Amino acid sequence: MRPQTAVFDGQVNASKTTPSLWFLICMALIPFGAEAQKSEELRNLLFEPVLIKRNPALPAPSNQEGEPGEAAPPSETIKEITDLPAGDNPIPVSVFLLNKALQEQTTEVDNLESSISSYEETIRDIELDGDAYEPALIQELISIGSLYQQQGDHNLALQFFDQALHINRVNLGLFNLDQEQIIDMKIASHVALGDLYEADLQQEYLLYIKRKEYGSTSLEMLPALSEYADWNIFAFDSRLAMDPTQTYAAEASVYTEDQVNNAIGEEDLRTVRLLNAQNIYRTIINILLSNYGVSDRRLLDMEKKLALTNYFFATNLDVMSNVSSGKSPSQALNSSQGFYDMSRVSSNSMGYRHGREALERRIDYMLDMQDVSPLELAQARIDLADWLLLFKKRTAALDLYQEAYNALAATDTPEESINDLFSPVFPQTIPTFIDYRYSRATLGVPEDQPLEYHGWIDLRLEINRYGQTQNVEIIGQSDSTTDPVAIRLLRQVRNSTSFRPRIGDGILLDQDLVETRYYYSY
């Protein structure tokens, strides 16, 4: 399992069983009425912005006496400046997701069933010629388990993976590395079933056997450490981990170089996973610095991921302040502000300080590296400025944006590249390392997938020099637009979206006026 590491309001299935085909088909047949929208359909709501320009209304034609005519009322024209993905046969989001689910569970059913029968026959032959622990059985069991996995029958797939794992260990020993493929496949099925507990135990065991083979801080451990850190971010950010009936974690220990946290309770999964990820990224950074110095480009990615963990800390809990107040990690997390909520984040928090330091180190590394382009360095400075702005260090943030622009403008970087970074057609939402609600990334819809839209809403946004929306006004909408859709868009733009200030004529804009049409699908 190679999970993504940064998902905002992720859409991981939290049910304990895989949805049946009949359930998915029935959901697709629910009518798109207002009541259905409120309860079901809007769970797949997606907004896509297109920049627009409005031309003033033309006066109505005059009659022979010079008076305004009555044949055609004045109207304004609206031109769309940016485009959305286009193509043949666009479909609504819900239909795309349904098709995707059906495809995953029914792809080549006849061929799969034929292949399963063939593998079962091969397994019987091997057992007759040898015994129940014949090594040749391992790959056959993995193959048949993989086929059941493709059909969506993860419980049956796990039975075959467990049998393969047992034979593997009988023949090769409890801690052999050849079992990695089987464990990875088990993890995928556990996640598909919504069983984060078992998936996490398997991840910990996989790291444990690699540490026994290579040592805790060896260079050979770098890929395993990186994968395990990414897993911890996934486990922290997964919707599964936010459901207290389906999560677990330890009350005390977290990952160190000499141990893995496998003393698991019930409530602290998210906190412990975040602590694990943070410590592992630091371990990786120390290994890289000890062996390669500041010239290793992998440091840039690890420091940015370390900053991500601190963003999660700052927007979910401040561990040190809450622990010092007598609360357990789980109480601190569950009683804090909402997930990824910047409204009450303190610029004195541990998360802010450590995240800022990680992003500052990235810049220092780049200044010592030989192959870093001016554009990359400018982007790193912008990342730090974004961080400062999010945590309300506004003066420092604006100064750094301007400094990054001036430094890049003094190089031979093409003007088009500079404008793409500092003056994009549509203002860039920040932070850039999370996926916002109502987006393709959140729902798992490819960027190039043509969609059928149910309607549109035109907004006028006034964005101040600190990237905050001051006035948000609906200036038009399609006849099909309902209140639940409009309310969700307004809430998202007003309360959950910050923008990076744009530069015009070489200086930061004091006020940015944007008119945009949000197409929506569900």
Summarize the structure.
With 522 residues, the chain is an alpha+beta fold.
Low-confidence stretches: 1-37, 242-267, 319-339
| Quaternary structure classification | single chain
Structural class: alpha+beta
- The CATH C-level class name of one domain: Mainly Alpha
Relevant CATH superfamily of one domain: Tetratricopeptide repeat domain
What is the overall shape?
globular
- Cα(first) to Cα(last) distance is 29 Å
Q: Which band does the percent of strand residues land in?
A: 5-15%
Describe this structure in words.
With 522 residues, this protein is α+β, with helices and mostly antiparallel strands. The chain has a domain at 104-193: Serine Threonine Protein Phosphatase 5, Tetratricopeptide repeat (Alpha Horseshoe), CATH 1.25.40. Helix content is 50%, strand content 11%. The chain contains 19 helices and nine strands. The strands form three sheets. A five-stranded antiparallel sheet has the order 2-1-9-4-5, with helices on one face. The protein is globular and about 85 Å long. The chain starts with 20 loop residues before the first helix and ends with a strand.
SSE blueprint:
Blueprint: H1 21-28, H2 34-39, E1 46-58, E2 75-80, H3 93-106, H4 109-129, H5 137-151, H6 154-172, H7 180-192, H8 196-214, H9 222-237, H10 269-292, H11 298-316, H12 319-324, H13 329-334, H14 350-368, H15 374-390, H16 394-409, H17 415-422, E3 429-430, H18 440-443, E4 455-464, E5 469-477, H19 483-495, E6 498-499, E7 503-504, E8 507-508, E9 511-521
Antiparallel strand pairs: 1-2, 1-9, 3-6, 4-5, 4-9, 7-8
